[in-house]
Design goal:
Blueprint: E1 15-26, E2 29-39, E3 48-53, E4 58-69, E5 72-75, E6 81-85, E7 92-97, E8 106-115, E9 126-128, E10 139-145, H1 146-149, E11 153-155, E12 160-164, E13 167-173, E14 179-182, H2 187-194, H3 196-202, H4 208-218, H5 224-238, E15 240-241, H6 256-262, E16 264-265, H7 267-280, E17 284-290, E18 305-311, E19 317-320, E20 338-342, E21 345-349, E22 358-366, E23 371-378, H8 380-390, H9 395-408, E24 414-420, E25 431-437, E26 446-451, E27 465-473, E28 475-480, E29 484-489, E30 492-497, E31 505-511
Parallel strand pairs: 1-10, 15-16, 22-27
Antiparallel strand pairs: 1-2, 2-8, 3-7, 4-5, 4-8, 6-7, 9-14, 10-13, 11-14, 12-13, 17-18, 18-19, 20-21, 22-23, 23-25, 24-25, 26-31, 27-30, 28-31, 29-30
């Protein structure tokens, strides 16, 4: 089977021939073994294997690390195995090097992992992806004790299950999807587990510091919606986001005072603080996990976003995503429909509509001198992107960044001044005003130019529109691209982009005497 996909006669990619995973419980500790065999290819992917872990809640023991050919295997030397500082996801990593591993040689690797993080009090859960260093195993096998499996649910495309002795065995061959094993039979059950600590924090007495934040938000006026938007701006400007607190249980949430003191928050903790502030303001607030799939078997880590549902005294209700940094306060980014768990039910928000994300670029150009004034207003996705481009950048550097943005759009301009609304004020939509020079025509009264534009690298999944208008003074047109609409109005020539793209548009200008 291996020879069919791997040839020693020439270069070939690495191959993972088999992957075996077992799950078991020792009290509240999850015990996993992970084992694979593979063949080194010309890409040398198997020369170094790293296993990240959190030492405060996990231990990793290397049980097997061998390499060889044709039945002759040798264990890697002790000096090639070490525990090193991890990266952004893990505090430590068990790193195993396979020295002198040549193309065509086989690798055998096995680790034993114990996890006492507190995630498994209701039973083990796992999402098993058939992927090792970007390679899909030719065969997969996952085993779970049969008595443990009796209280679990599972789902996985391409997997077959069968009882083998005292274990339940799941097997699959390429191609296989993700295998999900979970004690949670519905998104609602996973959501309840995820929000256990959050509910505790919200039902405990609030610290005085939180009430001070609520008083600042109340300065937005009597309108509860305006106060909620103000509260979101205040919290986003006073907290630093972190995706997870490493070593903590999934769904962990510190006490409110600890969060306020540290000024660092996870998505869940930000939702808790925001919900507490809005509660102090007299609104009813509840947290809704979001982003997970619409299927019967789910795990808490699939729900990585948290919305807060607010209800005012008059019964009006609205959703806010507090953790969405440098994003309009009232806007929830969802290029695809977004599932969320609300009141014990799985609901789905529709994807953002095309009218939610708009960019209007209005260029006022003096055809004779080439000077320009750009006035830009944005909403939705464009608003979010503009904030992240310019937030915290000094004026001098911002001019350089705008010049680079123009250059990467295909038409160089020279900005001289820039003004913008405050990107850290999330309550109002962003506006930008830039002045500068777009061209120098020289002595000719008839000349060709490219009209300036700022192109956005907008994903295909994000709906929206860019509306560009160029208003030129002191010129008459001999020719312009067919993608442009042209009209004369009050001595000016007004062009607008009617195409789906935002590339620089060629025109020929004639300066009026």
């Amino acid at each position: 089977m291996v020879a069919a996909v791997f040839s020693l006669a020439g270069s070939a990619p690495s191959v993972i021939t088999s992957c075996d995973i077992s799950l078991d419980m020792e009290g509240d500790t999850l015990v996993r073994t992970f084992e694979f065999t593979g063949i080194q290819g010309s890409d040398r992917l198997l020369s170094r294997i790293s296993w990240g872990f959190e030492p405060a809640t996990q231990s990793v023991v290397l049980e097997t690390a061998e390499m060889g050919m044709e039945g002759s295997f040798s264990r890697v030397p002790e000096w090639s195995v070490d525990t090193l500082t991890g990266g952004s996801l893990w505090r430590r990593s068990l790193v195993t090097a396979f020295p002198a591993l040549r193309e065509g040689m086989e690798v055998r690797y096995r680790v034993l992992v114990r996890d006492w993080s507190g995630n498994w009090t209701g039973g083990p859960w796992a999402m098993i992806h058939p992927d090792i260093k970007g390679l899909r195993p030719l065969s997969m096998r996952v085993t779970v004790p049969a008595d443990l499996m009796a209280s679990l649910h599972w789902e996985g495309s391409g997997y077959r299950s069968m009882r083998r002795g005292s274990a339940m065995e799941f097997t699959a061959s390429d191609p296989a999807g993700t295998l999900v094993i979970s004690p949670f039979g519905s998104p609602e059950e996973a959501g309840e587990f995820l929000l256990e600590e959050a509910v505790t924090r919200l039902t405990s007495p609030f610290p005085p510091d939180l009430r001070e934040a609520a008083l600042q938000a109340a300065s937005a006026g009597a309108d509860e919606y305006a106060q909620s938007m103000r509260a979101r701006t205040l919290l986003c400007n006073s907290m630093s986001p972190v995706n997870v607190m490493r070593g903590e249980r999934t769904g962990s949430c510190r006490e409110l005072q600890s969060i306020l003191d540290s000024r660092r928050v996870t998505p869940l903790e930000m939702a808790v603080v925001y919900a507490a502030v809005c509660t102090e303001l007299g609104m009813t607030a509840s947290i809704e996990p979001a982003g997970g799939p619409d299927r019967s078997v789910t795990v808490p880590t699939e729900w990585e976003r948290f919305l807060v549902r607010l209800t005012g005294r008059d019964g009006d209700s609205w959703l806010v995503e507090p953790f969405a940094w440098l994003t309009p306060a009232s806007w929830i980014h969802r290029p695809e429909p977004l599932n969320h768990i609300s009141g014990g039910r799985l609901l789905r928000m529709p994807a953002n509509g095309p009218d939610e994300s708009l960019c209007r670029e209005n260029w006022l150009l003096d055809a004779a001198t080439g000077d320009f004034v750009l006035e830009m207003s944005v909403s939705g996705w464009f608003d979010m992107e503009l904030r992240r481009r310019i937030a915290g950048i000094p004026a001098g550097e911002l001019l350089l960044q705008l010049a680079e943005w123009s250059w990467t759009s295909g038409r160089t301009v020279v900005p001289r001044s820039v003004e913008s609304s405050d990107p850290f004020d999330l309550e109002d939509e962003m506006v930008l005003r830039v002045t500068g020079s777009a061209w120098n025509r020289g002595s000719s009264d008839i000349f060709a130019e490219l009209l300036p534009v700022l192109s956005w690298e907008r994903p295909d999944t994000v709906p929206g529109a860019v509306i560009v208008t160029w208003t030129l003074e002191g010129s008459a047109f001999a020719w312009a691209s067919g993608d442009l609409s042209i009209r004369r109005e009050a001595g000016r020539t007004i062009l607008s982009d009617t195409s789906a793209h935002t590339a620089p548009a060629p025109v020929i200008l004639e300066i009026e005497p």
